[in-house]
């Protein structure tokens, strides 16, 4: 049985721009066993940068177990949770998102998925929990890595990307800089008069993100016209989010999508996000087989480490892809 969540003090004076009125939108649903999945996935990545995955073959009992164990961690006394913090960026954090002043109605743990790199804060999280939590986390990470690679392989096939595994190999290799984040948005004693920010608007910098949450609403994505739409929760499925790195490598064909979480209910929300990232020293640039001519490339080459460091120093809502964008020649930029 999951214990009652302990009260946590948050700054709730952060409200949503009233001009952004969310409305429901049909989210593309992709069956990974469908022969037409590759066409559907690429279209969803081009149109929304976002889609739902069903028939993913992840055991339902694993999802239930991990959610229960995560809730047990967040139900611990604050003093015990803080033994795994402050985040470096791994470990336990509360309210503060990154070093640039972003705040939200949440607490979270960020876990290193690379077993070849030690993280004292990741170890500290597991020291506050039963062994079953670590076992569930490690199995879940393996499943998310498998799913992320499968999606990237499908994209490679549909776009005829060469060499083979150009994208998916970046996640498969042991040097892959991926991570798992668990966000807990505590329940509220009273429903607020205005929707409040749980996690502010942002794009994910990695290749793709694989997200799962409980059945509490709150996730929203931003459409091309700037309007925000609510994503109906579905605890049995996963959502895939295109990241900045994949946008760069496809020269803007597949679009990273802004998303956020709002909190306006008395029910707590728990989400788990696997960020599929390339090795730190990997050079990120448009794939040459998609854009043979240098002058047609919208982005210059950077290492993943350079872009990751840049993102870490900026605010959530900043436009961070500008670091990648090629500058127009002086004669053109002043026309």
- Spatial strand order of the main sheet: 2-3-11-8-13-6-5-4
Mean pLDDT reading: 88
Largest sheet: 8 strands, mixed
- Low-pLDDT windows of residues: 1-19, 330-335
Strand content: 15-25%
Pathway: Hormone biosynthesis; Plant hormone biosynthesis; gibberellin biosynthesis
Pfam family, one: 2OG-FeII_Oxy
Domain Fe2OG dioxygenase: 175-278
Protein name: gibberellin 2beta-dioxygenase
Set down the secondary structure blueprint.
Blueprint: E1 23-24, E2 29-31, H1 37-47, E3 50-54, H2 60-74, H3 78-81, E4 91-97, E5 102-112, H4 120-127, H5 131-159, H6 169-172, E6 179-185, E7 196-202, E8 208-213, E9 219-222, E10 228-230, E11 238-242, H7 244-249, E12 259-263, E13 269-276, E14 283-284, E15 302-303, H8 304-313, H9 330-333
Parallel strand pairs: 1-10, 2-3
Antiparallel strand pairs: 3-11, 4-5, 5-6, 6-13, 7-12, 8-11, 8-13, 9-10, 9-12, 14-15
Organism: Brassica carinata (Ethiopian mustard)
Keywords: Dioxygenase, Iron, Metal-binding, Oxidoreductase
EC number: 1.14.11.13
Task: Describe the model.
The protein has 335 residues and is an alpha+beta fold. Helices cover 27% and strands 23% of the residues. It has helices at 37-47, 60-74, 78-81, 120-127, 131-159, 169-172, 244-249, 304-313, 330-333; strands at residues 23-24, 29-31, 50-54, 91-97, 102-112, 179-185, 196-202, 208-213, 219-222, 228-230, 238-242, 259-263, 269-276, 283-284, 302-303. The strands form 3 sheets. It has an 8-stranded mixed beta sheet. Strands 1-10-9-12-7 form a 5-stranded mixed beta sheet, with no helix packed on it. β4 and β5 (102-112) form a beta hairpin. The longest helix has 29 residues, at 131-159. It is globular, with a radius of gyration of 20 Å. The relative contact order is 0.17. Residues 175-278 form the Fe2OG dioxygenase domain. It comes from Brassica carinata. This is gibberellin 2beta-dioxygenase. InterPro entries: DIOX_N, IPNS-like_FE2OG_OXY, IPNS-like_sf, Iron_ascorbate_oxido_reductase, Oxoglu/Fe-dep_dioxygenase_dom.
């Amino acid at each position: 049985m999951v214990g009652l969540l302990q009260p946590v003090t948050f700054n709730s004076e952060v409200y949503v721009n009233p001009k952004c009125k969310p409305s429901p939108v049909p989210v593309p649903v992709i069956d990974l066993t469908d022969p037409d999945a590759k066409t559907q996935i690429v279209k969803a990545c081009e149109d929304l940068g976002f889609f739902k995955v069903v028939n993913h073959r992840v055991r339902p009992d694993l999802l239930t177990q991990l959610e229960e164990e995560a809730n047990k961690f967040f139900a611990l006394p604050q003093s015990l949770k803080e033994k795994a913090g402050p985040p470096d960026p791994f470990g336990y954090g509360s309210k503060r998102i990154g070093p640039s002043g972003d705040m939200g109605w949440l607490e979270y743990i960020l876990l290193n998925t690379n077993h070849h790199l030690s993280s004292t804060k990741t170890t500290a999280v597991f020291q506050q929990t039963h062994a079953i939590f670590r076992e569930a986390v490690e199995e879940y990470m393996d499943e998310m890595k498998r799913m992320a690679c499968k999606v990237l392989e499908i994209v490679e096939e549909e776009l005829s990307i060469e060499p083979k595994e150009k994208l998916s190999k970046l996640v498969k290799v042991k040097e892959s800089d991926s991570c798992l984040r668990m966000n807990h948005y505590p329940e509220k004693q009273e429903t607020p008069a205005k929707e409040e920010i749980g996690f502010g608007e942002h794009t994910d910098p990695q290749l793709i993100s694989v997200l799962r949450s409980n059945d509490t609403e709150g996730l929203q994505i931003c459409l091309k016209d700037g309007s925000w739409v609510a994503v109906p929760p579905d605890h049995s499925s996963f959502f895939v989010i295109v990241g900045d790195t994949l946008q760069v490598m496809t020269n803007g064909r597949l679009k990273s999508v802004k998303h956020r979480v709002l909190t306006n209910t008395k029910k707590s929300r728990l989400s788990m996000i696997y960020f599929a990232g390339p090795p730190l020293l990997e050079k990120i640039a448009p794939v040459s087989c998609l854009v043979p001519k240098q002058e047609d490339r919208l982005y210059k080459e950077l290492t993943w480490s350079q872009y990751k460091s840049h993102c870490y120093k900026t605010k959530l809502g900043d436009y961070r892809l500008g670091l990648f964008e090629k500058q127009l020649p002086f004669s053109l930029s002043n026309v």
